[in-house]
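Course assignment 3, question 2. Fill in each field.
Student: A.L.
Task: Predict the tertiary structure for the chain below.
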Amino acid sequence: MERITSKNNQLVKDIKRLITSTGERAEKKLFVLEGARLCFDVLNSAYRVKYFLITESALGAYPEKAKKLEAVSEKSFIISDEVADKLSDTKTAQGVFAVCPVRESEAKLTDKLIALDNLQDPANIGAVFRTAEALGIKTVITSNCCDIYNPKTLRASMGGVLRLDTVDCKSLSDMLVSLKNDYRVYSTVPDASAEKITETDFSGKCICVIGNEANGVSEEVKAVSDSLITVPMQGNAESLNASAAAAIVMWEMLR
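Answer field:
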């Protein structure tokens, strides 16, 4: 492994820009994983590794996993603690980083799908991926959402982004129309007059749409939906957090 000890190293600067800039990730088609769990999770995913960076102390803590990740990486580096601190997007750097090319997904559309319409909170999106994986959903559809390779999304997903297929589309309404011969489309709304999810028939192929944190599902998507559904609520709450609503909907859809 080569060594990098300077925070001013050009590769370090380039990786830092990937961590902090959505535009840089989109232009270079690269993203960064940080932390032992996420970096070693890539070994059980379809993603390749361009650069693997690790500190001496982390190498001592994870010798076998580090050896495996080094073997599948195009290039590997031992970095100083100062470099790790510069790169880290967390309060305490674990000293393990991996730079991966974005993967063009060839998603297989399974019977039950969750679609995200203009979600903008990275933590919400990550939580949806984590719950979707836990409940058995294999593919997540995203449309006009924030970057799934945002460091906060990757951490919140607990590696789910790496293991699930993602279909990203510019027009969710157009995509849903193209699938309506095979799927029933449900859009979630915070409206007591909508159909209660506890009374909804989720048998057969179906897609459930979760809307933007502030504005909900777009009018265009609601217009092409077969049904508007809602999570019954008590008390004074007007709506649920998007990831909480998604968790409840996915549970009902799959049970």
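Instructor remarks: The mean pLDDT is 94. Residues 122-135 form the longest helix (14 residues).
Grade: pending
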